[in-house]
């Protein structure tokens, strides 16, 4: 199916309408796009944004502080095209252009170059604190040519502060409604060539009203930077974290999502050696070890909240308490080497290689196997060639081999035309692959009672699952708008995805001897078996997104993000998994010692959620919400203190995510949200010394 002509015409008119704007700044004025930062995430080369082969959004430390947000996923709502849903206080659903289904796995999230578990956004030990972040670079669009299969739809690269740019100590406290109580302390020390930063943080709240939703946790993070010589530096990051989160809902059939408390622990150790003989040459060697553990066990109850057919059938049987579990251990080890060199005055090269070992252990999810291991090998390179003063080529390629499968290539070709000192246009093509996760390939979940035996096989493994492939075409514009002291970034895209991985119902029956029930397949027929499968038809994503940043008056800034996406697919479930639009409008304003931030968020309808229900469909309605933060700085002698009041979801309760089995219950259905989120307000007090 082709994109709607109306959408393409509107996009073309917008892009063509930008051409007169390029003449607003004369070629002999300030350096080209001077206010825009140098970025690292598109090609691994440090590049001015005008030279990058991708659309990139940057969230810097000032914007992070101005929002007052407590978690990383909330910040990502300020990026065009990001579609974020919050199930509860401790659970987020984060994708770019949708297609996240139950387990979003299309984004590569990095912290200083190491892969981050997407489920630990904001709470994990990798970052320590949002205050440790220098900036977040979000590559909007496939970047498999630089980072491999996990960068299928994009990259979120979190870059933390180097200790050389940090000093002193800081303490901050958050107190608010719903039990919000966070305490954080950071200290930086320098001793000659050595810099150390230690961050300790405690966080906690009781979650959103009406949900079993409390959480609490502790994080300890250490960063060290040692300047060995004028050309060599060693960086160390180490962190540990522990969190307890209330999960589940009351009234679920069989107590399949019983109210309970889960424990999550994570740890990371990351070493990097950087050798830079000059500004034009660099070697980088990196090794990291990361471990994430989840302990989340409970029991199904054979008499709890049953549908009538099962209630009548099981009434004559003894009560069954069946163990289930979300418990899992994930371990990653990674070694990477890359080199950057200036091969000629107009030619820069970067090449490298990576090995990653991944192991997953879960007796519940991997019934027969118990554990799985995977090896991943990658070699990559990027060439930046200035063919003429205004023409720049970016050619990238990554070759990837996973678990002995045939190698797959992810190429990228982009041409940037610097039409004037104030504007650049880019056009390009890229191919991306996404390797199925160990969970998607091998998940095998069986519900077994100690007395009766196998009652249901919920998930079936699929070792024949094929990696999805995406071919993406992009046309973009990046320019300064001196009239409003601003910048405009526009991306027009068309992406075709083949072999998309989706969850499907499969026909499966138990053998007569598998359990001791009179009708051994009654539960299996009602609850059904599912498996991850490749969609038989391609999916087309097309649309336009843009970001406008403007400083139209003194100490004020406006940031407008807007995205329109059309998903064309024969499968209606796939189409509903993409929100057709999303918008955010942020106003930042300073008034002397005062600072204020207002953000209006609008998300289109989307089928975002968890739980496969064969006959039930539920789309989360579109919603609008408002966040606000106001701060006042004080100075007592030499001591600076900031007091900040922050509130989110000020326009009332709304739903962003659906647990479908819960939503299907008669008291909710399609008319009433099962887990609506409401306003939260907290007061922050911080000081540096």
Notes on the structure:
This protein has a single domain, classed as TonB-dependent receptor, beta-barrel domain (Maltoporin, Chain A), CATH 2.40.170. It has nine helices and 39 strands. The longest helix has 13 residues.
CATH superfamily: TonB-dependent receptor, beta-barrel domain
Largest sheet: 22 strands, antiparallel, barrel
> In CATH terms, what is the architecture?
Beta Barrel
Q: Structural class of the secondary structure composition?
A: mainly beta
Classify the beta-strand content into a percent band.
over 45%
Helix tally equals 9
How many structural units, i.e. domains?
A: 1
Count of individual beta strands: 39
Oligomer: single chain
Mean pLDDT across all residues, rounded?
89
Outline the secondary-structure elements.
Elements: H1 5-17, E1 38-39, E2 47-48, E3 55-60, H2 61-67, H3 72-76, E4 82-88, E5 91-96, E6 107-111, E7 114-115, E8 133-140, H4 144-147, E9 154-160, E10 168-176, E11 181-191, E12 194-205, E13 215-227, E14 232-247, E15 260-278, E16 281-295, E17 297-301, H5 308-314, E18 321-325, E19 328-344, E20 347-361, E21 371-388, E22 391-402, E23 408-420, E24 423-433, H6 438-442, E25 445-449, E26 453-459, E27 469-481, E28 486-498, E29 501-506, H7 522-527, E30 529-534, E31 539-550, E32 556-568, H8 572-576, E33 581-591, E34 594-603, E35 609-610, E36 623-636, E37 639-648, E38 658-659, H9 660-663, E39 680-688
Parallel strand pairs: 6-9, 35-38
Antiparallel strand pairs: 1-2, 3-8, 4-5, 6-7, 8-9, 10-11, 10-39, 11-12, 12-13, 13-14, 14-15, 15-16, 16-19, 17-18, 19-20, 20-21, 21-22, 22-23, 23-24, 24-27, 25-26, 27-28, 28-31, 29-30, 31-32, 32-33, 33-34, 34-36, 36-37, 37-39
């Amino acid at each position: 199916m082709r994109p709607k002509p109306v959408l393409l015409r509107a996009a073309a008119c917008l892009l063509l309408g930008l051409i007169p704007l390029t003449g607003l700044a004369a070629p002999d004025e300030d350096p080209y796009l001077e206010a825009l930062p140098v970025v690292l995430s598109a090609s691994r080369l440090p590049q001015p944004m005008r030279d990058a082969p991708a659309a990139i959004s940057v969230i810097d430390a000032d914007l992070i502080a101005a929002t007052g947000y407590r978690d990383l996923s909330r910040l990502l709502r300020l990026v065009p095209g990001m579609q974020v849903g919050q199930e509860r206080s401790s659970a987020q659903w984060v994708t770019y252009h949708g297609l996240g289904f139950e387990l979003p796995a299309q984004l590569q999230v990095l912290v200083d170059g190491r892969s981050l578990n997407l489920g630990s956004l904001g709470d994990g030990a990798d970052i320590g604190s949002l205050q440790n972040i220098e900036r977040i670079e979000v590559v909007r669009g496939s970047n498999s040519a630089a980072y491999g299969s996990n960068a299928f739809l994009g990259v979120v690269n979190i870059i933390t502060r180097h200790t050389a740019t940090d000093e002193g100590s800081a303490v901050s406290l958050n107190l608010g409604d719903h039990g919000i109580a966070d305490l954080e302390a950071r200290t930086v020390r320098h001793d000659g060539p050595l810099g150390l930063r230690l961050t300790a943080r405690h966080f906690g709240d009781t979650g959103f009203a009406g949900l079993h939703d409390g959480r609490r946790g502790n994080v300890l993070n250490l960063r060290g930077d040692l300047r060995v010589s004028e050309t060599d530096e060693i960086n160390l990051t180490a962190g540990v974290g522990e969190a307890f989160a209330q999960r589940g809902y009351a009234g679920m059939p069989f107590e399949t999502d019983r109210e309970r408390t889960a424990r999550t622990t994570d740890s990371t150790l990351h070493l990097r050696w950087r050798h830079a003989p000059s500004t034009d040459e660099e070697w980088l060697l990196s090794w990291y070890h990361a471990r994430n553990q989840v302990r989340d066990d409970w029991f199904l109850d054979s008499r709890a909240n049953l549908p009538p057919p099962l209630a009548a059938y099981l009434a004559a049987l003894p009560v069954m308490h069946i163990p289930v579990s979300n418990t899992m251990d994930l371990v990653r080890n990674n070694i990477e080497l890359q080199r950057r060199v200036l091969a000629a005055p107009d030619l820069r090269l970067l090449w490298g290689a990576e090995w990653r070992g991944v192991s997953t252990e879960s007796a519940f999810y991997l019934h027969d196997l118990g554990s799985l291991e995977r090896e991943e090998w990658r070699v990559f390179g990027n060439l930046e060639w200035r063919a003429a003063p205004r023409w720049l080529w970016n050619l990238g390629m990554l070759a990837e081999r996973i678990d002995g499968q045939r190698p797959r290539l992810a190429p990228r070709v982009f041409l940037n035309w610097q039409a004037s000192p104030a504007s650049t246009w880019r056009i390009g093509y890229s191919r991306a692959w996404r390797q199925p996760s160990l969970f998607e390939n091998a998940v095998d979940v069986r519900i077994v009672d100690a007395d009766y035996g196998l009652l249901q096989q919920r998930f079936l493994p699929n070792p024949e699952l094929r990696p999805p492939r995406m071919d993406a075409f992009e046309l973009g514009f990046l320019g300064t708008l001196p009239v409003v002291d601003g910048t405009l970034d526009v991306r027009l895209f068309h992406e075709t995805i083949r072999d998309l991985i989706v969850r499907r119902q499969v026909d499966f029956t138990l053998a007569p001897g598998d359990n001791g029930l009179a009708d051994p397949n009654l539960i299996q027929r009602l609850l059904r078996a599912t498996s991850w499968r490749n969609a038989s038809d391609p999916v087309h994503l097309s649309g336009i997104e843009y970001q406008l940043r403007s400083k139209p008056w003194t100490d004020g800034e406006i940031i407008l993000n807007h995205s329109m996406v059309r998903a064309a697919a024969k499968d209606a479930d796939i189409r509903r998994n993409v929100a057709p639009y999303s918008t955010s409008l942020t106003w930042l304003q300073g008034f002397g010692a005062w600072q204020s931030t207002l953000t209006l968020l609008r998300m289109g309808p989307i089928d975002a959620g968890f739980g496969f229900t064969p006959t039930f469909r539920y789309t989360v309605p579109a919603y609008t919400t408002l966040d606000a933060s106001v701060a006042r700085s004080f100075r007592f002698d030499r001591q600076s203190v900031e007091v900040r009041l922050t509130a989110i979801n000020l326009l009332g309760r709304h739903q962003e995510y659906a647990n479908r089995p819960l939503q299907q219950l008669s008291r909710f259905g399609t008319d009433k949200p099962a887990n609506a989120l409401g306003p939260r307000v907290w007061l922050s007090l911080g000081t540096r010394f």
